[in-house]
């Protein structure tokens, strides 16, 4: 199996996490208007009803003993959504992974969307391929901001900082400023992004790549997103955030603050989601190899079984289920070693959280991603990972029939 298909499978497994958190959300009466995601949830809801309904579409859920408010798209049928935005133009600035996913979903939802990117750049080309028309729905960044009522800043985080002197004067009173990450405004001492005081400033941060935002939408499902308000001038900022969340393809929306969103996001991706998992895979693989195990054995016992067999079970049914699906021998050892890994890693995670909180991670990211050579520098580092034996072992080729 190629690595590409492995990653695709892993992504699908990630998207299946949603039903677990959404399990208690839906009542049977609501099935008709629901996505596949919600229909899955309905099946499960008959087993574990634990929802406190407040108003339709807004639920208080019990997450391991902590009550949290969740917003869902069932409260926003398409006609209501289109009516809500009938006088708005969503000006999507930047057309990377999120711009693509959020923009196309909002456009397919019948919302008036335009795109603003650098003329002649990679994104300009990509946007045209996706059907955005120069002079009609595709403009320079400045022109799109001028035409938009809701300015969705989906430039790279480093570019948001670099372009702010040009963007800021165009965010005039009455417009809404939207982000998908708390990065720029929370770390304002480093980014210098300080929104004008007379505009609503809101956030919808999908919990997945923009490609997943698009894929789930096309499957009739919705991504989980965080929503937050930084500045509420109109008194309608939160409602607007929920509505845009639905427009760009969210299924369930979890309320947070800009600060908590950016802290948890930077921490999570450096930790278990990306950085820690690469470090842990590599450490395990290296010790197996140092003890004479073949590359295939070390790879199978580290990556293959994890991604193809066991981790999808965690995503679908939980850690206890995955443990139970394994042998008694495996279970005993895993139960004994889990607390050792936990204890060993807590100081590392504490150090990481502090590095996020004090802005060290932000400054590194701004410096690296602000370089003219950031794309080639990144490609070089990723190539180094790709060249590691563990990943080359995963791309085995058939030498004989
Ligand atoms: N990707 C994710 O998984 C994810 C998930 C949730 C939230 N977010 C957040 O969503 C936002 C957008 O992220 P993304 O991953 O979609 O985009 P990205 O790949 O980080 O940024 C791409 C966009 O930034 C533009 N850009 C870069 N440097 C520029 C400059 N100096 N001047 C003008 N434009 C410039 C690019 O245009 P050119 O093609 O012209 O260079 C492109 O349109 C960020 O705040 C990110 O943190 C991302």
Structure characterization notes:
Helix 8 packs across helix 18 (360-369) and helix 13 crosses helix 17. Helices cover 55% and strands 14% of the residues. It has an 11-stranded mixed sheet, sandwiched between helices. Residues 1-55 have low confidence and may be disordered. The radius of gyration is 23 Å and the shape is globular. It is an alpha/beta fold. The chain has 20 helices and 11 strands. Helix 5 links the parallel strand 4 and strand 5 (113-116). The chain folds into 2 domains: 71-256, NAD(P)-binding Rossmann-like Domain (Rossmann fold), CATH 3.40.50; 271-398, no CATH class. The protein starts with a helix and ends in a 7-residue tail after the last helix. The structure holds NADP nicotinamide-adenine-dinucleotide phosphate (NAP). The site of NADP nicotinamide-adenine-dinucleotide phosphate (NAP) has 25 residues, from helix 5, helix 6, helix 8 and strand 9. NADP nicotinamide-adenine-dinucleotide phosphate is lined by residues 94-99, 117-118, 121-123, 154-157, 159, 162-163, 180-181, 183, 205-206, 209-210. One of its GO terms (biological process) is L-valine biosynthetic process. Its cofactor is Mg(2+). Residues 67-256 form the KARI N-terminal Rossmann domain.
Would you identify the CATH architecture of the largest domain?
Answer: 3-Layer(aba) Sandwich
Number of domains: 2
Strand order of the largest sheet: 1-2-3-11-10-9-8-7-4-5-6
Q: Considering DSSP H and I runs of 4 or more, what fraction of the residues is helical? A: 40-55%
CA-atom Rg in angstroms: 23 Å
- Helix tally equals 20
Q: What's the number of extended β-strand segments?
A: 11
* CATH homologous superfamily (4th level) name of the largest domain: NAD(P)-binding Rossmann-like Domain
* Distinct small-molecule ligands in the complex: NADP nicotinamide-adenine-dinucleotide phosphate
The SS-based structural class is alpha/beta
User: Would you state the CATH class of the largest domain?
Assistant: Alpha Beta
Note the gap between the termini: 16 Å
- CATH topology description of the largest domain: Rossmann fold
Strand content: 5-15%
- How confident overall, as mean pLDDT? 87
Low-confidence stretches: 1-55
The major β-sheet equals: 11 strands, mixed
Shape: globular
Binding site for substrate: 327
Subcellular location: Mitochondrion
Cofactor: Mg(2+)
GO molecular function: ketol-acid reductoisomerase activity; metal ion binding
């Amino acid at each position: 199996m190629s690595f590409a298909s492995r990653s695709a499978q892993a992504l699908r497994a990630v998207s299946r996490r949603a039903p677990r958190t959404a399990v208690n959300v839906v009542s049977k009466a609501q099935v008709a208007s629901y996505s596949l995601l919600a229909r899955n949830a309905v099946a499960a809801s008959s087993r574990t009803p634990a929802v406190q309904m407040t108003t339709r579409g807004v639920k208080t859920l019990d997450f391991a003993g902590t009550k949290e408010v969740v917003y869902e798209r069932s409260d926003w049928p398409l006609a209501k959504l289109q009516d809500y935005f009938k006088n708005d133009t969503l000006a999507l600035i930047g057309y990377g992974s999120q711009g693509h996913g959020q923009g196309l979903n909002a456009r397919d939802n019948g919302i008036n969307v335009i795109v603003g990117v650098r003329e002649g750049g990679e994104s300009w080309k990509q946007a045209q391929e996706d059907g955005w028309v120069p002079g009609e729905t595709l403009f320079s960044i400045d022109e799109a901001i001028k035409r938009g009522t809701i300015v969705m800043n989906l430039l790279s985080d480093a570019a948001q900082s670099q372009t702010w002197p040009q963007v800021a004067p165009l965010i005039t009173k009455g417009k809404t400023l939207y982000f998908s990450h708390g990065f720029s405004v929370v770390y304002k001492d480093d980014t210098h992004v300080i929104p004008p005081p007379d505009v609503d400033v809101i956030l919808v941060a999908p919990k997945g790549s923009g490609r997943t935002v698009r894929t789930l939408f096309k499957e009739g499902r919705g991504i989980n997103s965080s929503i937050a308000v930084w500045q509420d001038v109109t008194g309608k900022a939160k409602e607007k955030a929920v509505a845009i969340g639905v427009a760009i393809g969210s299924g369930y929306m979890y309320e947070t603050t800009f600060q908590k969103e950016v802290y948890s996001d930077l921490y999570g991706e450096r930790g278990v989601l990306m950085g820690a998992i690469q470090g842990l895979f590599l450490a395990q693989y290296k010790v197996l190899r140092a003890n004479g195990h073949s590359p295939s054995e070390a790879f199978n016992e580290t990556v293959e079984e994890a991604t193809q067999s066991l981790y999808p079970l965690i995503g679908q049914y939980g850690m206890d289920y995955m443990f139970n699906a394994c042998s008694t021998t495996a279970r005993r050892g895993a139960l004994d070693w889990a607390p050792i890994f936990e204890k060993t890693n807590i100081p590392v995670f504490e150090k990481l959280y502090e590095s996020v909180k004090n802005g060290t991670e932000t400054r590194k990211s701004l410096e690296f991603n602000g370089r003219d050579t950031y794309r080639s520098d990144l490609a070089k580092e990723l190539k180094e990972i790709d060249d590691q034996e563990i990943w080359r072992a995963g791309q085995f080729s058939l030498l004989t029939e």
